[in-house]
Design the sequence.
C-alpha cells in the first residue's frame, strides 16, 4: 500500500537479511563513532564517507 503507516517489522526483517552481522547497528556504536570523529585522534580524517552499516555495503 502506498499510503498509511509503513510495516516496520517487515522493513526490519528485510534489513536484517542484508546485514553480514545479522543484527541492527546499536545507537551506542553511532555515538562512539561521533566521539572518535570529534576527538584529536581523528585529526587526519577528512572528506570521508563512513558507512556504519554492519556490512550491508559489502554485498
Sequence:
Amino acid at each position: 500500500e502506498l499510503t498509511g503507516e509503513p510495516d516496520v517489522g517487515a522493513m526490519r526483517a528485510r534489513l536484517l537479511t542484508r546485514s553480514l552481522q545479522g543484527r541492527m547497528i546499536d545507537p551506542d556504536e553511532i555515538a562512539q563513532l561521533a566521539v572518535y570523529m570529534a576527538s584529536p585522534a581523528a585529526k587526519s580524517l577528512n572528506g570521508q564517507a563512513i558507512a556504519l552499516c554492519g556490512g550491508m555495503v559489502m554485498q
